[in-house]
Amino acid sequence: MRILCTGVCGQLGHDVVNELIGRGCEVTGTDIRLVYSGIEDGSAVTSAPYISLDITDKDAVSDVIGNLKPDVIIHCAGWTDVDGAEAPENRDIVCKINTYGTENIALAAKAVDAKMIHISTDYVFSGKGIRPWEPDDKDYGPLNWYGQTKLEAELAVSRILEKYFIVRIAWAFGLNGKNFIKTMINVGKTHDTVRVVNDQIGTPTYTLDLACLLADMAGSDKYGYYHATNEGGYISWYDFCCEFYRQYGLTTKVLPVTTAEYGLSVAARPFNSRLDRKKLVEAGFEPLPDWKDAVSRYLKEAEL
After folding, report:
1. Which stretches within 100-222 are classed as H helix?
2. Cα torsion at 56, 208, 15, 116 (round to 10°)?
3. Domains with residue ranges and CATH for the chain
4. pLDDT by residue (tens digit) across 258-291?
5. What are phi and psi of 272, to 5 degrees?
6. Which of 40, 151, 158, 286 gets the most CB atoms within 10 Å of its CB?
7. Which residues are catalytic?
């Protein structure tokens, strides 16, 4: 099975490439950087071909995918700086990357009859209420520009293709890149007290676990929308921080605050990021492990 993975210099793309290599797949990685940049773990760096690719360049995307003729495209690339997306000078490029870049991938996938696995987000929803969002919910209403561009990307994929997976995740953390755990542990090492919001509710996603699921999907034809976060009860960012501080051994005091009290975010954040995951099991996919177990494994692997 020939697989093309975009965004391999990021948290998820890095883990996806390594998982696919471990399964003996013929995988090629792409990202906008001229050379691969990530953790030197001896697999993604040396074992998979790498192509520098700007997904906003429609002709380049068509040429790369037309030449490789992959059976599956796992699309992990995207603009992920939620606050940065709100800056007026960034809005056009965020749209070009998240929406039109994804559309370019989908059109090229159709041309070679490839499956496409597109990574999306809870931010496509309004974040209102307390009911977990189901994969096939159409009650959209993103609160910020990042969410709007990701919603438009989803709609492009579903409009262009028949053989697609749209996989929404939330609160991602992985070894290769920045994330909430890394940031807060570094802050906790130099502060006696930290403030973390307790009124935004969801579940984390460990990219290493998600990569296993995406590799399983690549060999499947159970197309459609899915939600894929780690198992375990729904929690707040405050709960999340308390748990990984406890596991790491930090005694820094964590103070729960409301989003309004925190007041530092530029982009509006959803209060309800609960994602219903039962469709995964109904389709025969293995659910992701409990998030506390994921944190434990992550902390053992990460050099923090």
Report:
1. 101-112, 145-160, 180-188, 207-218
2. -50
3. 2-179+203-233+274-289 (3.40.50.720)
4. 999 998 889 999 999 999 999 999 999 999 999 9
5. -110, 100
6. 151
7. 146
